[in-house]
Design a protein that fits this description.
The chain is an alpha+beta fold and 409 residues long. 56% of the residues lie in helices and 17% in strands.
């Protein structure tokens, strides 16, 4: 076996320039794959984090069936007390209670149907980015103040600004008529037209009084420190829920199913692009090994005449390819991992990222995320396809006739 390895290694460097060109193609593709896959994972994490932190949160405690029916009466009793209990047990401030209702918002000139959310002004900034996006006026302050924060599109549609009054008309939890006049304390601009057009927030205490909630609410939003901790945190939250209230913890996938579908669609298009790159490298390996076999036809004819089986020659060619692929995998993974890790720590930006980040309260720098999968998945596929590319040159040796091979120049 040692003799075979030495022979394969010697054959590999008969044409060092050609070997390095092919190995260089592998290294380049591996570095590119490691960086692109890591950047893709980092972008997905950023996309999910920003989508969830905008308003949804990593998970929500709800009454069973509320996610499908959205009925006013599907409530969480003593929602503020439950949120405080979770903050205490989880030792985290990233927990906030909410209640929601649909209402008709009227100014002096226009009326629009909106979704009104009662929030805890003290804790809502910990689970949502909307409080940080208030560009005009300020965010909510008092728990019972008759004030409201609305989106920029809604403010434009209603033709109101900071200091103007809005009249909200809706139905209470018990089916009674609910009405309140609230002053616009601030206007936020999230950059998402759907949020800016349909969302308004008021203090939870005021909301509960207006809509006759009797201390109940509809959601307790919980955020994890990192997205990767969400599954474990969800189990802890579920274990802390009071018995007998039929409450459930909905994860972000259930709350925003379209987000995962968008990521899966993007992965499909990326896999196609990566596949084209891998196939190009495989053809490069095929060309290198085929040329190597053709150049050594006379030599192969001699060893076949001496009794060596064609199958062993084929395995020798594949071993040479495996060695070349191992060099490309090792160097590519190391260089790609080091480059990606360095950029992951420092971050990098593209034209327009800083302006977009400042406008939408998002990070202005991108941070690729190096994981075991991103580090080895791409190079491993390149290695596998390189081995597959060497199958054809190896099979050609099975049809090689010793006498005809020895006559070749």
């Amino acid at each position: 076996m040692n003799l075979v390895l030495r022979l394969a290694w010697r054959n590999l460097w008969r044409q060092p320039r050609r070997t390095w060109l092919t190995t260089g193609a592998m290294v380049f593709s591996n570095v590119l794959l490691v960086f692109m896959i890591s950047l893709q994972f980092g972008m997905y994490r950023l996309m999910i984090e920003n989508s969830l932190k905008a308003f949804t949160g990593h998970m929500q405690v709800q009454a069973r069936g509320y996610i499908d029916d959205q009925k006013m009466r599907q409530t969480i009793p003593d929602v503020v007390a439950l949120a405080e209990h979770l903050r205490d047990k989880l030792d985290s401030d990233e927990v906030a209670a909410r209640a929601t209702a649909f209402a008709l918002a009227s100014s002096e000139e226009r009326s629009y149907g909106i979704a009104v959310f009662g929030v805890e002004p003290r804790f809502e900034p910990r689970v949502s980015s909307i409080p940080g996006l208030v560009g005009e006026g300020r965010y909510l302050q008092g728990d019972d103040a008759a004030e409201i924060v609305i989106g920029s599109v809604l403010a434009r549609n209603l033709r109101v600004g900071v200091g103007d009054e809005l009249t909200l008309l809706g139905s209470g939890r018990d089916g009674s008529f609910a009405a309140v006049v609230a002053t616009v304390a601030g206007v936020f601009d999230s950059g998402v037209a759907e949020l800016d057009r349909t969302i308004a927030e008021m203090p939870l205490g005021l909301f509960q009084d207006v809509f006759y909630m009797e201390g109940s609410g509809h959601q307790v939003v919980v955020n994890a420190q990192r997205l990767g901790q969400a599954a474990e945190l969800q189990s802890r939250v579920a274990a802390l829920l009071p018995e007998g209230q039929d409450l459930v913890v909905q994860d972000w996938d259930a709350l925003l199913p379209g987000l995962k579908q968008a990521i899966q669609a993007d992965i499909s298009s990326a896999v196609f692009m990566y596949g084209v790159l891998v196939i190009l490298v495989a053809f490069s390996v095929l060309n290198t090994q085929l040329m190597s076999v053709l150049e050594r036809t006379h030599e192969f004819g001699i060893v076949l005449a001496l009794g060596l089986k064609p199958g062993r020659l084929g395995r020798l060619v594949m071993l040479e390819t495996a060695m070349m692929g191992a060099i490309g995998l090792t160097i590519g993974a190391l260089v790609g991992g080091a480059l990606t890790a360095w950029l992951g720590m420092r971050g990098f930006t593209m034209p327009g990222m800083e302006e977009m980040g400042a406008k939408f309260n998002l990070p202005s720098r991108l941070h690729p995320e190096v994981t075991f999968a991103s580090l080895l998945s791409g190079p491993a596929v390149v290695f596998l396809f390189s081995l597959l590319a060497s199958v054809y040159p190896a099979l050609r040796l099975r049809r090689l006739q010793p006498v005809e091979a020895m006559r070749s120049a």
